[in-house]
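Good morning C.,

I know you're traveling, so I'll keep this short. The sequence:
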Amino acid sequence: MSRIRLILIPPSAALPASCLTLDAQGNVLTRGVVELDGQPPEPMRTVAVVPGADVLIRWLDLPTGSPAQVAAAALHGLRDDLAAPADRLSAALGPVPAPGERRLVAVASRSLLQAWGDYLSSLGLKADVMIPDSLILPEPAEEGALSAAVFGADLALRGREMALSVQPDLAEAVAAGRVLERIGRADEIERLLASAALNPPINLLAGAGRRVEADRRGWKRAAALAAALAVSPLILTLASAGHDEWRARNAEHRAEAAARGAFPDIEANADAVAEATRRLAKAPPPGGATAAAAALFAAVESVEGAELDSLTAGDDGVRATVTYAAYQDLDALQQAMAGHGMSLTDESTVDDQGKVVSEVRVGGA
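The tokens, ready to paste straight into the viewer:
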């Protein structure tokens, strides 16, 4: 089996999987998509490229030891960056680095690895290697640059000891001033895919401790599913569950990147999202104090029984005291202010003779 089948797993199990067939030298023999036609696929080594947005990639200083010990040390070192307990995750290791260099580590959810395996099994395939798409890209020659290429709906980025996939509109924030060296030509991307298939930078399946096989769940080969001409709903459920679990953590990374892009002076060890939220709450409202007063008067008038007791504008922003009948009325006031593109932050609330009194700050939404 000197030929290699390279599959690009799509971000959704409902989408077709693109496929390249390569010879032993990495030349492309065929291009297309994998389809259920009732015939078992030809046996050959299979390399799957998975969405990089669902894989956490880091370079770490790690101790020596067995692969299992080193992987456990990697998960322990990354514990503050992970969205799930270590026993639900799989850490794959890159090649042993030269002395003084850090080691490549890729962490993925075990349930998501299983879902990808089940997706391939529904097509009659089983992966020998799984690689995140961001590691397909080459490291840029320049220190202040990032290689970039589109895979599916995301943009894969690669730098020195950096690899991730993000939504394209967040690329500039993540780049933080570094030049994006975009790779857009199909033949160049095919060349990089072929190179990675011949010499995988990492294998996510190696970190699972065993092959991720759908057969133990009772799935049959694609020939048995061909009559349905569709991916099983259970496979879609598995893929969705694993995808959502890891997307939650990926959303946190994207939010942090957006926060740091908006406020580049946030300290490296600070909670960027919390700090950005605090700054936005204290930011002058759109249109200044006059616009804030007009919006607040309108909001108070829209809530029955609410009253505006005081309004001040100074160096610390626009503040007010409002009185209303029930606690849920504050939610209504905040929603009304949001309709004007402003926020209403509750800084203190007390009960006063059957009424509720709040000190609030008006800020940007």
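Safe travels,
E.
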